[in-house]
Structures are given as C-alpha cells and as structure tokens.
Amino acid sequence: MTNIVKKASCNRSAGVIQFLCKDNACEPLPQDYSDPLALLGDIKILNLDTTQKKELREILNKEVTTNGAKDVWDNRTFRKNLILSFGKVV
Q1: CA separation for the pair 61, 65 (Å, rounded)
Q2: Residue-by-residue pLDDT tens, the chain, 90 positions
Q3: Is 14 within the bounds of a domain?
Q4: Range of 62's domain?
Q5: Closest CA to 83 of 41, 25, 29, 28
Q6: Is the dihedral of CA 12, 36, 41, 26 positive or negative?
Q7: Alpha carbon separation from 34 to 12, 37, 39, 53 (Å, rounded)
Q8: Distance between CA 88 and CA 2 in Å, rounded?
Q9: Considering only CA atoms, which of 90, 23, 15, 25 is closest in space to residue 59?
Q10: If we measure between CA atoms, which residue out of 34, 42, 26, 33 comes closest to residue 76?
Q11: 63-80 burial, b for 16+ CB within 10 Å, e for fewer?
C-alpha cells in the first residue's frame, strides 16, 4: 500500500489522508469479480466518471494478477480514502 500512497500523493513527502470511508469487516469477499471494481465494494462516494472507472479497473486488474483478489479486497477502504483525499485514481 505504500506504493499506492506515493502514487496518490505524487511522491510528495507530506499529505493528509482523510478517513471518510469505514470498513465493514463482516462483508465477505465477492465471489464474482469479473468487474474488478466489485473488489472495492460500494464506490458511489467516489463519484468517478467513466474514464476514471476505466483507469481504476486497469489498476485493479494488475493488482489482482500480482497480489490476488483478497489483497485488493482487504485494502479497499484504504484505497477509497486515498482517492477521496488526493482526488486521484490509484
């Protein structure tokens, strides 16, 4: 996740992450994640446009291939908070 923070903050040493999204630890990992955005749970709060969703899908596809779906799922809330805090898809 450190790499994601660097991308979100454009490698600036300072930044403020606002924790607006809360994690629901009881929510199970989706069994069907043909759309990798499903691995982030509810993303309505992010207000992403079509281009941003496409970019995020590409990022998530790479991460699922590299780290697995469970890793993406486990870090979903942190990622959403980063996107909200920095205004950048990561």
Answers
A1: 6
A2: 556 655 555 556 556 665 565 667 778 899 988 999 999 988 998 999 999 999 999 999 999 999 999 999 998 988 988 898 888 898
A3: no
A4: 54-89
A5: 41
A6: negative
A7: 34, 9, 10, 14
A8: 15
A9: 90
A10: 42
A11: bbeeeebeebbbbbbbbb
Supply the DSSP symbol for 11: T
The Cα-based distances of 57 to 6, 11, 34 in angstroms read: 19, 22, 10
The predicted model scores a pTM of 0.78
> Is position 78 within any domain?
yes
The Cα diameter of the chain in Å comes to: 38
Q: How many residues does the chain have?
A: 90
Question: Which of 36, 40, 74 is CA-nearest to residue 57?
Answer: 36
Q: Is 59 part of a structural domain of the chain?
A: yes
Whether 80 maps to a domain, the answer reads yes
Q: How many distinct structural domains can be found in the chain?
A: 1
